[in-house]
Write a structure and sequence with these properties.
Chain lengths: ~270, ~270
């Protein structure tokens, strides 16, 4: 296994300090990083079926199971998919690529067969349920994969050109590609480290929201990460620019697309 | 540990058939069920900090970390929270309760301090990123908790009365309570079983979307679950009714609330 940090080592990388408690059993959960360099090694259908069983074991709101995953393995379709995903190399190279979709279609069909008009699916609430369902499923898949030594990378760029993704994967009304996921064996050349995160007290509040929004301490810990990539920036500017509305890589029109697919209409 | 099914046993419960492949290492990922009966046993801050480190180790879009968790432990606030969450007993009884929030506030503050106007946060894309971020974090937390023998239950009812949740937790603009989570030691009296899911081929498609929407086989497997609860229904009708727009438990006005908080505006 390429990555083998213990949980205390991973904690130190996340927070810049050593844990005082035991973190037994948490190694695989703490050592996640996005893997973008994959070895040319295949992963069997049987292995993926096990991971998909993990995905299906995740919680799903009222057992509605509002998600689907489409594996894209055929070389020309995979190449087209990589192109739609901002030409990210790992989409091409991964042993498996999955488009994880928010899915109202299956429920809609089942309801109609049972004589129920599923006219509530266009409420924002049902959009949120589907996005949560698909994310929970994918993350249980990811945790299970990483526990077995595989590497994964989420691909948000699946939302860059949603209508083209829809055509490529023949997605019906009531579905949309929420994100992609690459799965593979990390290449020996993969050097991705465990990335520092905000202090735990900055995301976990007690009783009421109490944001410590000072990121000076975090900037110090993030500095080496940016430097290694030759970037002279800070987390606040680098992240802030992402939120300025000018760097949307096509996703500024996502709401129109979601409306077209029947999501978030009311 | 109360629940100790092996992965092959869990697979059989999910799919009604025995796996033909090895599922080594997947036990804890496959044996999830929502736990609603908790033993009156506390879980230490240190243990929760370990699980929160797992949550923070989940992928987050561009490292933006668009989520927060608020633990609600003070008895009167917990009671008020349970009331807001449809009076669900497990919210009152769990050793810990967390409100997991989609969070643009922290990024917004950091961006402004860095001289960037985060005016893009009102795009649907940023709402989706935050919902995915918070769900990935929560599910890694859940997987880590279950791997250690604890039980969890997601609480979608946190969205029933979002404005009241906002007041109770003093949530700022740019945040909303996405879902709750109960964490505790399952009571010996907890009888929740591993719930059957749709056939794997109904959620995992190859190359293109190809929904097998026939749920007859699934209905046979779900029948005992409904019968044990004294319900004479089917998955299709039971689920369909959820989608008819008449059973929204207050969530029919969620989009207005999201708009007020600065989400999904364009």
């Amino acid at each position: 296994m390429l990555f083998s940090e213990t949980a205390p080592e991973a904690w130190a990388s996340r927070y810049g300090s050593h844990p005082t408690q035991s973190l037994e059993g948490l190694d695989a959960f703490l050592r996640h990083r996005s893997v973008r360099r994959f070895a040319p090694v295949s992963i069997s259908e049987d292995t993926v079926a096990g991971l998909m069983a993990a995905a299906q074991s995740a919680s799903t709101s009222s057992n509605l199971q509002l998600w689907s995953a489409i594996s894209v393995q055929e070389p020309s379709r995979r190449a087209a998919m990589a192109e739609l995903c901002a030409d990210q190399k790992q989409v091409k190279d991964a042993a498996w690529f999955f488009a994880f979709c928010a899915d109202h279609y299956r429920l809609s069909m089942a309801a109609q067969k049972a004589g129920v008009d599923p006219k509530g699916l266009d409420y924002a609430e049902f959009g949120i349920m589907a996005i949560i369902d698909v994310a929970l499923a994918a993350e249980r898949f990811a945790c299970a994969a990483e526990a077995q030594g595989y590497g994964i990378c989420y691909i948000g760029a699946l939302r860059n050109q949603p209508a083209e993704v829809e055509r490529l994967l023949e997605l019906p009304h009531g579905t949309f590609g929420a994100f992609g996921m690459c799965l593979g064996v990390p290449a020996d050349s993969e050097t991705a480290r465990i990335k520092p995160r905000l202090k735990q007290s900055q995301v976990w509040f007690r009783e009421t929201y109490d944001a410590d929004v000072s990121v000076d301490e975090y900037e110090l810990r993030m500095k080496p990460t940016y430097e290694r990539r030759g970037m002279s920036t800070s987390w606040a500017s680098h992240s802030g620019i992402r939120a300025d509305g000018e760097h949307m890589t096509g996703r500024d029109v996502l709401l129109d697309y979601l409306h077209k697919q029947g999501f978030f209409l009311r």
